Amino acid sequence: MSKLxxxxxxxxxxxxxxxxxxxxxxxxxxxxxxxxxxSGKLLKHYEIGTHMHSHHMHNEHKTVENIIKRLQAGENIxxxxxxxxxxxxxxxxxxxxxxxxNNIEVECLPGATAFVPALVNSGxxxxxxxxEGFLPEKKGRQTRFLILAEETxxxxxxxxxxxxxxxxxxxxxxxxxERQISVSRELSKLHEETIRGTVEEVLKRFEIKPPxxxxxxxxxxxxxxxEAKKTKE
Length: 233
Prior knowledge:
Layout: E1 3-6, H1 19-27, E2 30-33, H2 36-45, E3 52-54, H3 60-72, E4 77-80, H4 93-101, E5 105-108, H5 115-120, E6 129-133, H6 141-148, E7 154-159, H7 164-175, E8 180-185, E9 193-198, H8 199-208, E10 215-219, H9 225-232
Parallel strand pairs: 1-4, 1-5, 2-3, 2-4, 6-7
Antiparallel strand pairs: 7-10, 8-9, 8-10
Helix pairs in contact: 3-4, 7-8
């Protein structure tokens, strides 16, 4: 019986690829890749010769129907993104939903994703959290911030490096200058670092030294006055 495999790929360090992921990518009939040039380097490194097709945010609406037909015809297909787990701020949801609707089995392998290590090493509460990914660029951004200003769970955001300073300034505006945050960049790579502190402190840090690389921001949820009083005591 055919199956769609969602296969996580390393977010930076190639050694984070699992044995199982390599095995699946070697055995499937086709690999769907977000960028075949980027994925080609990974496949070459692990000597994976499986044929690839492009499947990204700009063409996924058009390609889903044909992929479903191939799965229904008996092919096993794997979906990978440039880095991390498919469908987490990357293509994957539309195809997964179509498979579910057509009674095609879907299996997601465990593996690399950026927000989990960023959350765990932030030092902020991680028993309950909300993943926001990339916030809207314009329409709906302010509305989303107003809602999140009342969020009591730890919040996780993906932020582009050239928009980090602007976004941190928005955190000051909506969350307050004293809200605790953690900014992780280049996770699993040579220059990995995590900057922790208040929003104001971290903002000043990156105003002086502009950030580079992939960034995950973890923000502490809103603390009630009662809880804040207990913390001070």
